[in-house]
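Action item from last week, closing it out:
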Amino acid sequence: MRENKGKAAPAATFAGPDDAPTTLAAFRGKPLLVNLWATWCAPCVAEMPTLDKLAAAQADKLSVIAVAQDLQGAKVVDPWFQTAGLTTLQPYIDPENGLLLAYNSALPTTILYDAEGREVWRIIGAIDWQGAEAKALLAEAGV
């Protein structure tokens, strides 16, 4: 979906892996892929391994964050991360669902921002982040 192309990232605050508050603006400087997910969302969980591989492979060109929308926050997200076997993604949490509300979307939703924090595109639903469709979409941002 490209109807929000060029729109600035929302200012909603969420917690980083260190539990410190952060915003999407903190990631400006290189393209940012934001994935909204939850531990209870089967399609979300299914795409996490391919998203983790993308984060590892493109770390020099692209920041990738997965922001959990679980209302129980770290209480459920941290244990999930401990058993998921992911190597690159870290547990960002948004128990107030500020980002999900700002996007007025469903889970999973993934948004690509350019280096200046402007939306390039968004996808609602799971995707194989190692597949041809993802590669073509990421190429739009030079990734």
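Closing note: The two ends are 18 Å apart (CA to CA).
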